[in-house]
Recover the amino acids of this structure.
C-alpha cells in the first residue's frame, strides 16, 4: 500500500522512533491497567493467584515495554533484554500484564528487518523464554492456551519473513528497472554515436567528391577563360550544378540532426543505379572513366547499395585528385549469386607523373570510412597498387542474407 507524501503515515515512517515510543507507552499503560484490574479480583485472561503488584513489578513491566521504542535499531538485542524482565516476573509470581505483546512485536521486527539466521535465533529466544517461565512455575494456562501461543508466535514470525522477502523482491525489481534504464541510456548514447559517425562519413563523401570535382572544373575554366570562353562557361555551369547537387545531398544528411533522423531517413539516398550519372560527372571533370556492369542485376539491400555507391564515388574522387591529368579509370560491377563485386581501377602514376604511387598514398579519411562501410556489412576490401601500374580499390559484399 502506497503512502501519500505529506500524510501522517508517511511522516511516521520518516520518524519511526516517535511511533515506536508511542507504541511502547501504550503497551505499558495497558499492561499496568491489566495488572490493576486483575489485582482487584477481575482477571481477564484466566490467570491464577499472583502476588499483588508493587513498585518492582511495575518497574519490570516498564523495562519490558520500553524495549519496543528503539526496536528498529537493535531488535535482536532488545528482544533478549526484554525476555529477562519477563522471566523475572514469572519467577517472582507477578502478573505480567500484556508484556507478551512485546515479545511478539520484537520477534516480528527481527523477522522483517534481519536475515534468516537472526530471525531463527529470535524465535529460539522467545521459545526458550516461554519454556523457562513455565518451568519456574508460572500459571500460563493449559495445553490449549500453550498451543495458541505457539501458533500466534509462529504466525508472527512467518508474516515478518514474508514482508522481508516481499521488500527484498520489490527492491530487486527497482534495482533491475534502474539497470535496464541505465542500459537503455547507454544503448541510446551508442546509437547516437553510431549515427553521428554515419553522418560524418556521409558528409565527408559528399563534400570530398563534389568539392574535388568543382575544384578541377574551376581550374579548367581558369586555364581556358581567355582562349575558349565557351568551354569556361560550360565548366562554370557544371560547377553550379555540382554545387546545387552537393547542397541538396547535404541538406538531406544534416536533416537527420534536426529531426532525430525522421526526415533524413525519408530522403532518398544514392545507390548503384546512380553510377552512370556519377561516371558522367567524372568524365565532365576530366577523368576518362568507364563503367561495366556484369551479371544479372539484383535488388540490393539499402545499406549495401549505399555503401557500394560511396565506395565507387570515393575511389573515383581519389583517382581524379591523385592519378594525374592523363589517367583513365574503370569501374567494374559484377553481380554474382550471393555476392556483389565492385572494383575501381586507374592507370595513373601520380600528379607529378614521375613515380608510381605506393599503397598508402591515398589512405585518407575517405578510404578509412570505406573500410568501415565494407566491414559493417561483412565485406572484404583491398586497397593498393594495381598490377601493371596505377591504383585499385576492390570490395566484395556478401548477399546471402538479402535473399531470406
Amino acid at each position: 500500500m502506497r503512502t501519500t507524501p505529506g500524510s501522517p503515515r508517511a511522516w511516521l515512517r520518516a520518524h519511526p522512533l516517535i511511533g515506536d515510543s508511542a507504541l511502547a507507552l501504550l503497551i505499558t499503560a495497558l499492561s499496568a491497567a491489566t495488572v490493576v484490574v486483575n489485582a482487584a479480583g477481575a482477571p481477564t485472561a484466566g490467570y491464577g493467584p499472583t502476588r499483588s503488584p508493587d513498585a518492582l513489578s511495575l518497574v519490570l513491566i516498564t523495562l519490558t515495554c520500553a524495549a519496543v521504542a528503539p526496536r528498529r535499531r537493535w531488535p535482536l538485542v532488545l528482544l533478549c533484554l526484554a525476555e529477562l524482565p519477563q522471566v523475572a516476573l514469572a519467577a517472582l509470581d507477578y502478573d505480567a500484564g500484556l508484556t507478551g505483546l512485546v515479545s511478539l512485536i520484537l520477534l516480528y521486527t527481527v523477522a522483517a528487518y534481519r536475515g534468516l539466521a537472526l530471525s531463527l535465533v529470535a524465535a529460539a529466544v522467545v521459545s526458550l523464554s516461554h519454556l523457562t517461565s513455565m518451568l519456574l512455575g508460572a500459571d500460563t494456562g493449559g495445553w490449549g492456551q500453550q498451543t495458541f501461543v505457539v501458533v500466534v508466535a509462529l504466525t508472527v514470525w512467518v508474516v515478518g519473513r514474508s514482508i522481508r522477502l516481499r521488500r527484498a523482491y520489490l527492491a530487486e525489481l527497482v534495482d533491475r528497472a534502474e539497470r535496464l534504464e541505465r542500459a537503455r541510456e547507454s544503448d541510446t548514447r551508442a546509437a547516437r554515436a553510431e549515427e553521428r559517425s554515419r553522418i560524418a562519413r556521409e558528409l565527408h563523401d559528399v563534400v570530398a567528391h563534389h568539392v574535388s570535382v568543382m575544384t578541377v572544373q574551376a581550374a579548367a575554366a581558369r586555364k581556358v577563360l581567355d582562349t575558349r570562353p565557351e568551354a569556361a562557361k560550360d565548366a562554370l555551369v557544371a560547377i553550379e550544378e555540382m554545387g546545387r547537387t552537393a547542397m541538396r545531398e547535404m541538406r538531406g544528411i544534416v536533416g537527420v540532426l534536426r529531426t532525430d533522423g525522421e526526415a533524413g531517413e525519408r530522403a532518398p539516398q544514392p545507390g548503384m543505379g546512380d553510377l552512370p550519372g556519377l561516371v558522367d560527372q567524372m568524365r565532365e571533370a576530366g577523368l576518362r572513366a568507364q563503367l561495366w556492369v556484369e551479371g544479372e542485376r539484383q535488388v540490393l539491400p539499402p545499406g549495401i547499395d549505399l555503401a557500394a555507391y560511396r565506395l565507387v564515388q570515393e575511389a573515383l574522387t581519389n583517382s581524379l585528385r591523385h592519378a594525374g591529368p592523363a589517367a583513365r579509370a574503370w569501374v567494374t560491377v559484377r553481380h554474382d549469386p550471393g555476392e556483389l563485386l565492385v572494383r575501381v581501377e586507374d592507370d595513373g602514376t601520380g600528379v607529378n607523373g614521375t613515380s608510381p604511387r605506393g599503397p598508402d598514398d591515398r589512405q585518407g579519411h575517405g578510404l578509412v570510412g570505406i573500410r568501415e562501410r565494407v566491414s559493417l556489412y561483412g565485406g572484404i576490401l583491398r586497397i593498393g597498387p594495381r598490377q601493371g601500374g596505377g591504383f585499385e580499390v576492390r570490395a566484395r559484399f556478401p548477399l546471402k542474407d538479402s535473399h531470406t
Q: What stands out?
A: The beta strands are 288-294, 328-336, 339-346, 380-385, 391-398. Residues 43-47, 261-266, 354-363 have pLDDT under 50 and may be disordered. The two ends are 52 Å apart (CA to CA).
